[in-house]
Design a protein that fits this description.
The protein is α+β, with helices and mostly antiparallel strands. It has four domains: 2-6 and 16-49, no CATH class; 56-101 and 108-211, 2-Layer Sandwich (Ribosomal Protein S8, Chain: A, domain 1); 220-294, no CATH class; 299-386, no CATH class. The protein has eleven helices and 15 strands. A four-stranded mixed β-sheet has the order 5-8-9-7, covered by helices on one side. α3 (74-82) runs antiparallel to α4 (125-145). It starts with a strand and ends in a 15-residue tail after the last helix.
Length: 401
Amino acid sequence: MRIQLPKVEDGATAGDDDEDGMIDVIVEGNPLSVAYTRDAILKIAGERAANVSTRLKGIPAEFYPFIAGPKNSLVHRLEEDNGVQIRVPPHQAWSVKPPSAPAQGQRPVFAPAPNDNHIQLAGDRAAVQAARAEIEHRVEELRQQLALEQLSIQRGRHQFIIGDRGIPMDEFFENTGCAIIMPNDEEDDMVTIIGPPNNVQAGLEKAMDLAMNMQCSNIDISRFHRQAPGGAAAHARNVTRYLRQRKEIERLEKLYNVHFNTPFTEEGALPWELYSRDGKNAIRAQSEIKGLVDSHPPARISTVPVDSFFHQYIQNEVQPRVRDDYHVHLVVPETSDSNAPVLLVYEGPSSPDSYQIPRSQPSPADVKEMQKRLQEARAHIQQIVDQQEEITSTLLEVPLK
């Protein structure tokens, strides 16, 4: 008697939980033994196959709202009629690379969802297979029915379409019958609308209405200190980093119900974007911003380049001493901006928690004190860094297993 099972296909993994597949088992021997073995195998398989679970791996995530969204009862009906448990992952509104707009006369091409984002079915084998067949039939319909359109919307306005400052994605789908995809890439401003051809225009209109519901004004804070050493834009970036780290901009957003977009590059700060539904609040916020920037001239802020290897040490060990000895606050770069210099901002003899950010230009005497303290603090930090051993790096090849 010999029993032959199929080999595991290349790429299959022990962690694959798809139990809905069928395999061929070859049994060789005399007729009596073969019949007995066949019955035994079918009995074991029948006992184990009473309930199965499977994943639908070829379905694009963009189709999920049309399978299980607010206006679609397919999943609910399959669960009620077939007694199958169906889990459809929530469709994400944000994507690093959304589907591309098709050429004229062509249908859009949708890629299958990634491995960790599949529809899952569980229940009686026959019921699961029936539910799977219905869902796959619906998917083929969607491939032939759905249209895709894209439009360019100012990057700073994306937040007012979907999310905390916009509306939930489910609400957008319920109102328009369309799915929406926002780009995560900072360089991409294309908003993607997916839906039946008759609904796509309504989706585009809704996205534009939400995006343009906020008034926008630009504030170029570099113009307040045009003669700054190193350039007005570089100083504006330093001020922006400091006010962000001190959560002063966040305070203004809550106080006036506005939102600031404060972009900057390695060269310096770009004009701030101020969004508001109330024009008066926007004026009030702009007035406060002017006072904040006026009170932070180049004399109050300095920089020192420090290798990112020492940033954690500067943050934990050096900052408290610099605050106590020189009344200077340090802004250590974030991980995403590790090449930026450490900022030194003179705040005066006060504790970090009780410090009130000024709103007016410093006096000449204050400027002199700022420059003195910043020079001493910078020299102190530079001395600490220079005393450290030279940093080297090497590449190691490590086996995966």
